[in-house]
Design goal:
This protein is of the alpha/beta class. Helix content is 38%, strand content 18%. The chain has 8 helices and 10 strands. Strands 4, 5, 6, 7, 8, 9 and 10 form a 7-stranded mixed beta sheet that branches. A 3-stranded antiparallel beta sheet has the order 1-3-2. It is globular. The mean pLDDT is 89.
Amino acid sequence: MPQLYADENVDWEIYYRSYVDTYLQRDIRDLAQVADEMQFYNFMTVAAAHTARPVVYEELAAAAGVSAPTAKKWLSILVSSHIAALVQPYHNNALKSVVKMPLLHFLDTGLTAYLLKWGSPEVLERGAMSGAIFESYVFSEIYKSYLNAGKEPPVFYYRDKEQKEIDLLIYQNGVLSPIEIKKAASPGKGAIKNFHVLDPVSKGEFFGGVESLKTEIGTGSVICMAGDLLPVDAKNWYVPVWLI
């Protein structure tokens, strides 16, 4: 939202209220002829509360008071209008027990805060969703950097049935780079504890010895509130959020 950056005197709540009103009254009618604008607004608020979480359509539907097919349709509207993004799980034959649910991220954390009634940065900082909104902010900056360069974002995430997760994976040029996102100044080495789950994709024995099927594991990152770019170990770095 360039105007919010260009003019510090803009009241952000009035700005987002006008934006949401316009979005509901004009764009949504054109996209899907949603009959009940208030119900769609409630769904959008529920979806915002699920940012940085895997999508379970039945859960969204129950919270919004709509059917699961309607929740799926309405979420697709948010995605097609670039309000939100769905991140697909990374799949590889060498990895077992990987979940298939996409991950939801709202792409404008200001809009997310408005929908969820976080009235100021200070209140949000103390709130239960500060970590999730920080994660979505980092994701959105990386995601939009590819879109702005005219490229399809090569982004995935990892989660398996043992609840091991990696927040973001970038796969390009045959290299898979893991990224963890932590709203902390000193996350500690525990932040990279799940990176090892990717090891099988880099070993030929998991592909019947066919070396060409291996995937290289690239430099890992922990995007956090650190003040400087610092090494975690020989292959992973703490990356300050301001660098992205």
